[in-house]
Design goal:
Elements lengths: L6 E7 L6 H9 L6 E8 L5 H6 L6 E6 L4 H11 L4 E4 L5 E2 L3 H9 L5 E10 L7 E2 L10 H8 L14 E2 H7 L10 H12 L2 E13 L12 H21 L3 H18 L4 H14 L10 H10 L1 H10 L4
Parallel strand pairs: 1-2, 1-4, 2-3, 6-9
Antiparallel strand pairs: 4-8, 5-9, 6-7
């Protein structure tokens, strides 16, 4: 490996004109300067390509293709990457200046390991990001990381967290182009199950932009929900193949219940499918989350009718 390893920053972009400039500026401010930045414009209908071209830096490469989806755009970028490590990055998220340097420093001399980082959500400005320490903010065995991160049924594996050796990324195979949601969880589950260790990098920070109406992760279309069903099922399959245990089954049973609660009453059939999968895995049960009024009503009439009443009143 080179004395100063090159990091390939891979950014899929679709109708990202509003935020992609800020994302790229956060990359160019990295204190680790040995970078190649590959932006794949996935058939945008706005000024995404123009914004990217307007940022003059020889390390930035813009590739345009017809719209094929985020996973296909990432796979295109991976095929062009030549760095020692890969930093995946959504076109609206932001990195702190030290993020990549701190992760490279930990991965050099640790073959087969992947690096993770601190993260937080923001809704307006990155400076307002709130960072809440998690149980997985430490060095861990990869399987332990996967189990611990899903102990409440909710996992967060979005692309900016990670720095991945390029050989490990290629061993893991391509991103699943069938998935419009849960594609990051499915992909990084495969990566972690091939890794020797997860190295947590204190002080390395990334900022996750939340609350965007157009964000894929907020989609409630049938295709989004079907992708979520498929993605969770694949993650369950991979992890259970490594360890079929009570703790793994419990975590995925909770995940299925969260999915059922979130998609009801929009897709009752999918919700019941998810609940059946939960029951087949583990006896643990949870109630849907909600405010005080929702909790009272759900205790009286059941959570399904309470959810229908909630949606009828205009609450999502």
């Amino acid at each position: 490996m080179n004395a100063s390893p090159t990091v390939s920053v891979l950014i899929p972009a679709y109708n990202a004109e509003r935020y992609v400039g800020e994302t790229l500026e956060s990359v160019l401010r990295q204190t680790h300067q040995s970078l190649e930045v590959i932006v794949v414009d996935d058939g945008s209908r706005d000024r995404t390509a123009e914004v990217v071209r307007g940022i003059r830096d020889p390390r930035i490469r813009l590739v345009q293709q017809e719209n094929k989806g985020q996973s296909a755009a990432i796979n295109k970028a991976v095929s062009l990457a030549s760095g020692d490590f890969i930093q995946y990055l959504d076109s609206d998220d932001v990195l702190d200046p030290e993020k990549i340097r701190l992760q490279v420093a930990r991965l050099v001399g640790a073959p087969g390991a992947v690096a993770t980082s601190e993260w937080g959500r923001f809704y307006d400005e990155p400076a307002n990001t709130e960072f809440k320490p998690e149980a997985v903010w430490k060095d861990m065995d990869p399987l332990e990381w996967l189990v611990e991160s899903r102990q409440d049924g909710l996992d967060m594996m979005f692309p900016a967290l990670w720095l991945v050796p390029i050989d490990l990324a290629r061993r893991a195979g391509p991103w699943d182009e069938r998935l419009r949601l849960s594609n990051d969880a499915e992909y990084f589950t495969r990566v972690l199950l091939l890794a020797t260790q997860v190295l947590f990098c204190e002080g390395a920070r990334c900022h996750y932009r939340s609350g965007l109406v157009t964000n894929e992760s907020s989609g409630q279309s049938p295709s989004h929900r079907a992708a979520r069903l498929l993605g969770i099922g694949l993650c369950e399959q991979y992890v259970l193949a490594r360890e079929d245990s009570d703790r793994v089954r419990r975590g995925f049973a909770l995940t299925w219940q969260h999915l059922a609660h979130g998609c009801y009453p929009y897709d009752p059939e999918l919700a019941e499918t998810a609940l059946r999968r939960a029951r087949a895995l583990h006896p643990v049960r949870i109630r849907p989350s909600g405010g005080p009024a929702f909790k009272v009503v759900s205790r009286i009439v059941g959570w399904r009718l309470a959810r229908r009443l909630q949606v009828a009143s205009g609450r999502p």
